[in-house]
Amino acid sequence: MLKHLPILLLIVFGNTVSAQLTYETLYVDYDSAWTWKKLKIIPIRHKGDGGGRLLPGVVTLNEAMQKGWVKVSERGTASTENVHWLRINNSSDNSIYIGSGEIIMGGRQDRMVSKDTIVAPTGGDQYIPVMCVEEGRWSDKLKKFQYNNYANPALRKVLDQSKNQVLVWKEILAQLNYTGNRSPTLAYASQRTDKKFTAEQESYYNFFVEKFTNSDSTVTGIVCMSGDKVLGCDIYAGNNLFYGELLPLLHGYIEEAVTYGQPPVIDNKQVKAYLDNILTSETAQEDWLKRNGKMYKYRDKVVHITGYAQ
């Protein structure tokens, strides 16, 4: 399994800017594209103050679990009633951003968060909706819950566009069959520990982490490509949330490129045509993302947008 690295940056600016995540406030830095084997990543930067609008006091699920600020537990013991929920207790002073597509391993079975949400620091029981990503296990013996990054964009797309457990299972089974993985519990996460892939994925991970570490802090999003197509994009309202989510997102994009990808041959005109659907205007953005991605708003402000392959 790829190792988690510390969060790269957490930079807080006092001022806020427009809520728009469009070309008005963002630019795509085609000249700073990075390519490693089957994956190409182009950073998306914020114009102006360098960081954009932030959510002060909001941290990621990855950071919260690493630092012990949040406890994740089962809601109950009956699979029919509790498989689609996990209990969250946030004992920190921070709100926690949790994104759809994040994998939480353990418990009675592995799960994937099915809806973006921000969990307030109440200390009491709160519940987040999840999908099962380990069809063959509902165990009486609890395993410790562990964070396991974002799923690859192919699985995230099925999750966000269908919200259907059966279709999620079908996509996982198709991926396991494609990679030749023989997980006895049909666990999606099992392919992340397969020695055939982990060493290769590590080389990608190290390459891109170094590039982002040595870059400036104006990046608030990425668009990822393999072969002749765009795999997807993730853009955030501020760089603190982006950098908090970057490492978990990289795992998913790398997994898809290693498994299904080809050396990138896509040109910038094709990438621009894809991003024009999302970044030209707020009206066009919202309409396109309903069919090809997702948008998360908090207090009527856009926090995170995701586009998937068409």
Q: Work out the helicity level.
A: 25-40%
**How is the biggest beta sheet arranged?**
7 strands, antiparallel
Please provide the count of β strands. 16
Mean pLDDT: 90
Shape: globular
The H-and-E topology, N to C, reads as: EEEEHEHEEEEEEEHHHEEHHHEE
Low-confidence stretches: 1-18
Assembly category: single chain
**How large, in whole angstroms, is the Cα Rg?**
19 Å
Instruction: State the separation between the terminal residues, measured CA to CA.
Output: 29 Å
Question: Mind explaining what this structure looks like?
Answer:
The chain is of the alpha+beta class. The chain has eight helices and 16 strands. It has helices spanning 61-66, 79-82, 153-162, 165-179, 195-213, 239-260, 268-279, 282-292; strands at 26-28, 34-36, 39-46, 58-60, 70-74, 85-90, 95-98, 102-107, 111-113, 117-119, 125-132, 143-150, 219-226, 229-236, 293-298, 301-308. The two termini are 29 Å apart. The model is unreliable at 1-18 (pLDDT under 50).
Features:
alpha+beta; 16 strands; seven-stranded antiparallel β-sheet; disordered N terminus
